[in-house]
């Protein structure tokens, strides 16, 4: 009997809070690094009372631009110096990781799911993250997350999270040499912003409550197509047609 054709699926993973976790100390270091970048690259002092929660969840290029505008940096100067700002941001992250001021650890269930998906021939994987690309790979390496990822959408070139998903899809289709139906593309993330970006791109969304900001109830309220506590929960395994180990 002939086997039925199985559609190829593309699973795009967010990084922070989804694949890797950090602690409050590391989050505090994020603010320090942003302050250092604007002082060093743009010659601007970020006010001590500036609440970085205002830019939480935004693509790195976008929140850098919004802060630059607030500090009076012209559009031309921002564009000209952004590559240097991104590079310095990466250098600082690497420095603080080496000094153990920042700690990243892999989410055990996420690592387990990724490992299992590596063995499924019709499922392809990629990243979709607001991080600049160098920082994305650095965080995964720092967390000792042995991944199959080689492609994704990153926060270097686009500013909208929906556009980030579209970029990730386009890169994945080129990289893997296959066309994915929008109904067979899944965005996995831990925030309401990830769910919104999936909706804007017209793809399936999975909200996972392993991050530091949103609860299971908040992800459900945001309209996640599937919302789970961890990426090895039964609804996630069923979506990907993986057997439940329990």
Explain this structure to me?
This protein has 246 residues and is α/β, with parallel strands linked by helices. The protein folds into two domains: 9-22 and 105-239, HAD superfamily/HAD-like (Rossmann fold, 3-Layer(aba) Sandwich); 24-98, DNA polymerase, domain 1 (Orthogonal Bundle). The protein is 45% helix and 12% strand. It has nine helices and eight strands. The chain has helices at residues 24-41, 60-70, 75-98, 108-117, 133-142, 161-176, 192-201, 216-221, 234-239, and strands at residues 9-13, 20-21, 105-106, 123-128, 152-153, 185-189, 204-208, 226-228. The strands form two sheets. It has a six-stranded parallel β-sheet. The protein is globular and about 55 Å long. The mean pLDDT is 92.
Name the features.
8 strands; 246 residues; 2 domains; 12% strand; 6-stranded parallel beta sheet; DNA polymerase, domain 1; alpha/beta; two-stranded antiparallel ribbon; globular; Rossmann fold
Highest-level CATH class of the largest domain: Alpha Beta
Structural shape: globular
How many discrete domains? 2
Q: What amount of the residues lies in strands?
A: 5-15%
Total number of strands: 8
Question: How many helix segments?
Answer: 9
CATH fold-level name of the largest domain: Rossmann fold
Oligomer: single chain
Query: What is the average of the pLDDT values?
Result: 92
* Low-confidence sequence ranges: none
CATH level-four homologous superfamily name of the largest domain: HAD superfamily/HAD-like
Query: What would you report as the Rg, rounded to the nearest angstrom?
Result: 18 Å
Characterize the main sheet.
Answer: 6 strands, parallel
């Amino acid at each position: 009997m002939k086997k039925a054709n199985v559609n190829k699926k593309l699973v795009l993973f967010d990084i922070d809070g989804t694949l890797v976790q950090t602690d409050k100390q590391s989050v505090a270091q994020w603010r320090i690094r942003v302050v250092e970048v604007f002082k060093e690259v743009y010659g601007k002092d970020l006010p001590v009372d500036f609440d970085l929660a205002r830019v939480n969840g935004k693509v790195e290029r976008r929140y850098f631009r919004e802060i630059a505008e607030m500090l009076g940096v012209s559009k031309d100067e921002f564009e000209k110096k952004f590559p240097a700002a991104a590079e310095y941001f990466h250098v600082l992250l690497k420095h603080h990781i080496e000094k153990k001021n920042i700690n990243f650890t892999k989410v055990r269930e996420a690592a387990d799911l990724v490992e299992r998906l590596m063995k499924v021939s019709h499922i392809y994987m990629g990243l979709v993250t607001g991080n600049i690309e160098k920082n994305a790979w650095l965080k995964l390496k720092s967390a000792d997350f042995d991944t199959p990822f080689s492609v994704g959408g990153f926060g270097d070139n686009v500013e909208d999270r929906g556009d980030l998903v579209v970029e990730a899809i386009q890169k994945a289709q080129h990289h893997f040499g296959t066309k994915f139906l929008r109904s067979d593309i899944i965005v996995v993330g831990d925030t309401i912003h990830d769910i919104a970006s999936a909706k804007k791109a017209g793809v399936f969304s999975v909200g996972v409550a392993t991050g530091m900001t949103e609860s299971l109830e908040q992800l459900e309220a945001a309209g996640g197509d599937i919302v789970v506590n961890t990426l090895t929960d039964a609804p996630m395994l069923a979506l990907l047609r993986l057997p439940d180990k329990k």
